[in-house]
Predict the 3D structure of the following.
Amino acid sequence: GQQLNQSPQSMFIQEGEDVSMNCTSSSIFNTWLWYKQDPGEGPVLLIALYKAGELTSNGRLTAQFGITRKDSFLNISASIPSDVGIYFCAGRTMNRDDKIIFGKGTRLHILP
Amino acid sequence: NAGVMQNPRHLVRRRGQEARLRCSPMKGHSHVYWYRQLPEEGLKFMVYLQKENIIDESGMPKERFSAEFPKEGPSILRIQQVVRGDSAAYFCASSPVDSPGEQYFGPGTRLTVT
């Protein structure tokens, strides 16, 4: 079946550093989504991307829809303690069945 | 502007009992999705529903699990004769008709089977 490969699995960074994570797939997607999940909570939608090549920002977050439609990345600039959590990429397939497939997540840790 | 509501937040059931999980979508949203998440794992799609219709249940186990989204009232995910392996967090998401790709999640129901 369709799979999303999300990397890295986890990151340990210093406060103030920039962060980059990405998702790749062998399938083509027509929508890429990035979510953040805090412990004990549901995922919160951060950024939605709809067009190949699209670059979208939300505060310190920037995400891009890859030109091949098979990948996306998320950057976080100048990380702060509340950025800690799990970041999930998700893709919606081209066959428009509205099903969204999730990556396994990137766990972001900020070192004191 | 209430978000997706799920209840209960925590549910404890003994093996063999039934679990009923409820989800009220965001106002104006007519698409509902259920996902299961195990500790340290991503979200696994279970079922996609619109009002009174199951659109895609390819992620639902064939036995013991069922879902509905009636014309009135919340969506219900029902697990009969629960087993220990059903222990997980169950999340509901909803999306608007004009942007079905944007799913907004509820806080989840954490099911523990003892």
Remarks:
- Residues 66 and 74 of chain A are 11 Å apart (CA to CA).
- The first strand of chain A starts at residue 4 and ends at 7.
- Chain A touches chain B at residues 30-31, 33, 35, 40-45, 48, 50, 88, 90, 92, 97-105 (CB under 8 Å).
